[in-house]
C-alpha cells in the first residue's frame, strides 16, 4: 500500500479491483452433469479435481453397472444362482436371503450377515454306529387299566433271514407313536440314542387295495441280521453347530436327530 507524503493517507490504486462481496452477485456458470454418474462433464482432467473411476468387477457382478446403479430387472441373475445351487446337490448348503431380512430390530446387520455366511459353509461328519434295521411285523402295547402306570410293549422285527421280538419301554413306545411306523414299514433303530427312523414301506407287504399317498416310498425288506454296524454321514452347516452348542444337550444333540432351529446365540 502506497502512502501520500503530504498527509500520510493511502494513495488510490492504479488498477482498482472489485470488492470480494461483489463476486457473490455474479451468476454461477451452468454445469453439464453426466446422466449416469451425476458428476460434471469435463473435456479433460483438471488440477485438483479427482477423476471418476468405474466400479470393481465383483461389484458389477452383484447386479450393479459401472456407474454403481442397479441393472434392469428380470435379467435371470436369481435363476442362474438357483440353478447353480441345484446342480451342486442337496449336500452343498445354499442360502438365499432378501434385503429385508438384514434389517431387523431383534438382530444387528453384522450378526445377520454372519449367520448367513455360516449357513452357507457345510461340514461332513462321519459316524459309525450300531443300528437295528428290519421290517415291522407286529407292535403290542400294554396300557395299564388305571391309565397312570408305566406302559410296556413288544416289537417284532424281521429280515429275509431272521425274526426277533424286542421289549419296549416308555420312551421307545413314545418314539414309535411319534414316528407313526405301523406294520409293513421298514425302520431303523439307533441303539446308542434310541432314535427311530422310517425308511419306507416294504414291497413284500404292499397290496393293491391299500390307501397310500403320493409321498409313500417302497423299499426292499432288509437282508442279513437285524443288528449291524453302519457308517452314517451327517452334513451340517456351521450355523447349525453354533445353535446346537448353545443348547444344554451340547454337540451330542446333532447325532440324536434334533433339528437345529434359529434362535439367539
From TrEMBL:
Region (Disordered): 1-58
InterPro entries from the UniProt entry: NA-bd_OB-fold, RuvB-like, RuvBL1/2_DNA/RNA_bd_dom, TIP49_P-loop
A molecular-function term among this protein's GO annotations: DNA helicase activity
Compartment list: Nucleus
Enzyme's top EC category: hydrolase
Native species: Patagioenas fasciata monilis
UniProt domain TIP49 P-loop: residue ranges: 73-258
Similarity field: Belongs to the RuvB family.
Any Gene Ontology CC annotation: nucleus
Keyword Transcription regulation found: yes
Assigned keywords, A-Z: ATP-binding, DNA damage, DNA recombination, DNA repair, Helicase, Hydrolase, Nucleotide-binding, Nucleus, Transcription, Transcription regulation
Role: Proposed core component of the chromatin remodeling Ino80 complex which exhibits DNA- and nucleosome-activated ATPase activity and catalyzes ATP-dependent nucleosome sliding.
Catalytic reaction annotation: ATP + H2O = ADP + phosphate + H(+)
Biological process per Gene Ontology, one example term: DNA repair
EC number: 3.6.4.12
Protein known as: RuvB-like helicase
Amino acid at each position: 500500500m502506497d502512502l501520500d507524503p503530504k498527509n500520510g493517507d493511502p494513495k488510490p490504486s492504479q488498477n482498482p479491483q472489485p470488492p470480494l462481496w461483489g463476486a457473490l452477485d455474479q451468476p454461477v456458470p451452468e454445469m453439464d452433469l453426466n446422466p449416469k454418474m451425476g458428476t460434471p462433464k469435463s473435456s479433460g482432467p483438471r488440477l485438483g479435481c479427482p477423476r471418476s473411476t468405474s466400479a470393481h468387477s465383483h461389484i458389477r457382478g452383484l447386479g450393479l453397472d459401472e456407474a454403481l446403479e442397479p441393472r434392469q430387472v428380470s435379467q435371470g441373475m436369481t435363476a442362474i444362482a438357483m440353478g447353480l445351487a441345484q446342480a451342486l446337490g442337496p449336500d452343498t448348503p445354499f442360502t438365499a436371503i432378501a434385503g429385508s431380512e438384514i434389517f431387523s430390530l431383534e438382530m444387528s446387520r453384522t450378526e445377520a450377515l454372519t449367520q448367513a455366511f455360516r449357513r452357507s459353509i457345510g461340514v461332513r461328519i462321519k459316524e459309525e454306529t450300531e443300528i437295528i434295521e428290519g421290517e415291522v411285523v407286529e407292535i403290542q402295547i400294554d396300557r395299564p387299566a388305571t391309565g397312570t402306570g408305566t406302559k410296556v410293549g413288544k416289537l417284532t422285527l424281521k429280515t429275509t433271514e431272521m425274526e426277533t421280538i424286542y421289549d419296549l419301554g416308555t420312551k421307545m413306545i413314545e418314539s414309535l407313536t411319534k414316528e407313526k411306523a405301523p406294520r409293513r414299514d421298514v425302520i431303523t433303530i439307533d441303539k446308542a440314542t434310541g432314535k427311530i427312523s422310517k425308511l419306507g414301506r416294504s414291497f413284500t407287504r404292499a397290496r393293491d387295495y391299500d390307501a397310500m399317498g403320493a409321498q409313500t416310498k417302497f423299499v426292499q425288506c432288509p437282508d442279513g441280521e437285524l443288528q449291524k454296524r453302519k457308517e452314517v454321514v451327517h452334513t451340517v452347516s456351521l450355523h447349525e453347530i453354533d445353535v446346537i452348542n448353545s443348547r444344554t444337550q451340547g454337540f451330542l444333540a446333532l447325532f440324536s436327530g434334533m433339528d437345529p432351529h434359529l434362535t439367539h446365540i
